[in-house]
Design goal:
With 253 residues, the protein is an all-alpha fold. The protein folds into two domains: 158 residues, no CATH class; 89 residues. It contains six helices and no strands.
Length: 253
Amino acid sequence: MSDADILLLTLEVEAAAARNANLSLALERVESQLRGRSGDMVDGNRNNGDRPRLGSSTVSSFLPITTSSVSTQTTRLYSEGDKAEIRHSLKRLNEVFHDVEECMAFLQPSEGVFMPGRRVRSDHPTIEKAVCEITSSVKDLRETCKARITSLEGDNIKLKKVVDAQRKQIKNDDLIHKEQMKSFEKKLLNLQARYDLLESKQTHFTKPDFSHMLSENEQLKVQNEALTSALTKLQHEITYAIPKSVNLGPQNF
């Protein structure tokens, strides 16, 4: 989950908090209307009179904007776990809004019903439950955001340690390869000097010492072949060592 996704989730939490505040204001308006009409409702129930049902347009005026219309305006990327948590929270908020609508419709029925012994109460458990549900949902979203941010910070620290260790290892390997290259160059220079010395000896043989020259020439040939083989082997080692030192250099990271 990237920093942009975390920011979007935080903005979603702030929007939910704003909707919670709007719903609280709507609930206060409903409670004030209910207190003013409580006496009329008791008299209407005793007289078995008719009351007009609260229309859907009136109910919708007390409700804040639902989260579904807001969430469809932009396309946001979350992980599967975050999406499930957000869907669950939004579902709970929608259920709370429906409970409030049913409560308001129940308080103003289309036909008055005489209910003896019914006591008009100033508090409304359903409305209080709705407010508690919304507050709990916002709190859960905030805690989820904080936990996710803390987890991402811990992951970033671990990754930084791993990257630092790898860079240090690469520097050490580069130093080792440089030392090996210097050693190979010294060996190559020594072998080249010996090879040049053998060639110079072969060109200075004289005819009077022909028998001695043949035996020494054979020895020089053997030494020459050995040096040629050693040079070839060293060149192969240098050929394989150079790409490693280039690929493992710090400039490639």
